[in-house]
Amino acid sequence: MGLSVHDDARTATRLGRTSALVKLGVAIVWLLGVVVTPDPRGSLTMGLVALAAARLLGSVPMRELLRGLAPLVVAACGIAVFTAIFAAANTASGAVLLVEVGPLVVSAAGAQAGLLVGARLLAIGAISVAFASTTSPTALVDALVQQGHVSDRFAFGALAAYGALPRLSTDLRALRDARQLRGLRADLHPRLLVALLVLAVRHAERLGVAMDARGFGQGPRSHYRPLAWSALDPLVAAGAGIVLALVLAATVS
After folding, report:
1. What is the largest distance, in Å, between two alpha-carbon atoms of the chain?
2. 73 exposed, middle or buried (CB, 10 Å; 0-12, 13-18, 19+)?
3. Domain that includes residue 179, residue range
4. Whole-number Å distance between alpha carbons of 156 and 45
């Protein structure tokens, strides 16, 4: 599970040289900041800053960022509209109505609630996309083990399980093709799901045996890619903290 050429190119950037553990901490703190920000502008600002950092400091192509964010934008817009229509503030006495079409009523407070939810979802998506596009799973696991002192058996096991997810889609496709060859329906039949579960258990057993054969969890291990804290780590953490503090100061009264 070595780094690909794509990952090597990302490693040369400023965010690529920053510890994945630092970026994970920044992402978690920013996500908490998005949740407590009562102003949609604050959430959107944090999301835009995250995307800008991924583009300028991580050299992530804008097309890649937009492709990862596109389905989240659709979901956020749908949830925002749903929240605005069914907000409890629409039926409150004295509510300022913006839209009234038959039984459909949207007040100013309901629209504000929908906008806030949509902005938060967009910001959460933007921060997540920025983190995922600048941090490879292998780099994150290396940082968790070497700098976060997480059990290597758990960390690399999670990485291997994450890498095995695409295999499930391949197994499902093979099982559906096999059923079609037998003249059976290829939809999600319970027997098909049971067969997929059996294959997943077999893959997990082989993975566990392979990890035991390599000595995971049986004592100290050396590392193929030794990591060390760098001067960029506190700078990135401090910069992210300053941005978060400024946004919260401007939006939280």
Report:
1. 70
2. middle
3. 152-213
4. 35
Assess whether 110 and 23 both reside in one domain: yes
3 state SS of 95: coil
Residue 147 inside a domain? The answer is no
More confidently predicted of 50 and 10 = 50
144-172: pLDDT as tens digits: 888 888 887 777 777 777 777 677 778 87
Residue 223 exposed, middle or buried by CB count within 10 Å (0-12, 13-18, 19+): exposed
In this structure, is residue 146 part of a structural domain? no
Q: Judge whether 217 and 2 are in contact, CB under 8 Å.
A: no
What pLDDT does 4 receive? 44
Long-range contacts of 53-57 (CB under 8 A, 24+ apart): 53/15, 53/130, 54/15, 54/129, 54/130, 54/133, 54/134, 57/13, 57/14, 57/15, 57/134
The predicted pLDDT at position 158 comes to 77
Model pLDDT, residue 185: 67
Looking at the fold, whether 45 and 127 belong to one and the same domain comes out as: yes
pTM: 0.77
pLDDT at 90 over 70: yes
* DSSP alpha helix (H) spans, 57-151: 62-85, 108-134, 137-146
